[in-house]
Amino acid sequence: MEVISLLIGTVILRPYVFTFLAIYLFIASQQIGWTRTLIWTVTAYLVAFACEYSSIHNGFPFGIYYYVETTRNQELWVAGVPFMDSLSWSFLTFTGYTCAWQLVAAWKGRNGQLDDAAYQAVRRSPVILFLGALITVWMDPIIDTVALMGDRWFLGQIHGWPNGGEYFGVPLTNFAGWYFVTAVTIGANQAIDALLNRSDEQPSRPGIPYMHLGGFALFIFLVGFNLFMTGWLREWTLFLAGLPFAVSFLLVSWHILTGSGFFAPHLAVPPFPERSTEPT
After folding, report:
1. R_g (Cα) of the chain, nearest Å
2. Are the beta carbons of 97 and 124 closer than 8 angstroms?
3. What 8-state DSSP symbol labels residue 204?
């Protein structure tokens, strides 16, 4: 009963986290189906928790940092790590993954839309692991810097680095840690996806209009929320440092996606080639 009470307290204390979680669950379920979405959520949580637990004890992979246990009796903690912190990695990693999937598919289909098999196969390619992790890390200079100021807004002071860091108090090891967590999460889910693909039918293209672009909407929500909080705190130097990360990614994405017809409500499925009636 205490765990349930603390879990309810987590939702009440962190409603914005669960709003992002709900958006992610909806988008992911449309793109990869509920089975893969639930697996993604669990694996992302476990990988993130293991890395966060490791970092507060030995510094790998984020660097040595600590959690401030002021909310220990208000929300759920697991072995010294806030539950919501590890859970957040489900939507953070999926954002990078699905944006990378659509960008690579758009690039490959710039001379003509990919068929279903090719479009779905893209998500298991090694380049998605590399690019998806990079996109997730691209959000970190916006997210972790304002999180360090949590005592000045409703997040609360939840963590810190005892020795500070090179980027507005965040050490470079943290960015490496973000890449590591995301790459491991994407790689694990790509492997599981390949196994599932042997025994069940692949998810079809999303039926809801524009749902294939849901990851970009999630990117905008995440970075927009954190940039808004940065501006609300009047940290204009930090705001102006973070804004180019968001704008550059969106401009590059816009260029790639518009060149491949990915801004249509639904991705077009190429028709089967007509059989020639001429003798060969």
Report:
1. 20
2. no
3. -
Separation of alpha carbons 205 and 29, rounded Å? 11
CA–CA distances in Å: residue 97 to residues 14, 108, 168, 216: 24, 16, 27, 11
pLDDT for residue 166 is more than 80:
yes
Q: Is the pLDDT of residue 106 over 50?
A: yes
Separation between Cα atoms, residue 65 and residue 55, nearest integer Å: 7
- pLDDT tens per residue across span 178-215: 999 999 999 999 999 999 887 665 666 667 888 889 99
For 66, residues 6+ apart whose C-beta sits below 8 A from its C-beta are 56, 159, 160, 161, 162
Residue type, 215: G
Helix 83-108 to helix 15-58 angle (10° resolution) is 100
What's the pLDDT tens digit per position in 125-161?
999 999 999 999 999 999 999 999 988 988 888 889 9
The answer to whether 77 and 83 have CB atoms below 8 angstroms apart is yes
Phi, psi for 130 (deg, rounded to 5): -65, -50
Q: What is the dihedral of CA 115, 259, 244, 47, to 10 degrees?
A: 0
Q: In angstroms, rounded to a whole number, what is the distance separating the alpha carbons of residues 220 and 252?
A: 14
The DSSP code sequence of 91-154 is HHHHHHHHHHHHHHHHHHTTTSPPPHHHHHHHTTSHHHHHHHHHHHHHHHHHHHHHHTTGGGST
Sign of CA dihedral 163, 166, 167, 170: negative
- Segment 161-189 shows an average pLDDT of 95
* Helix extents (H) in 123-262: 126-147, 172-199, 214-232, 236-258
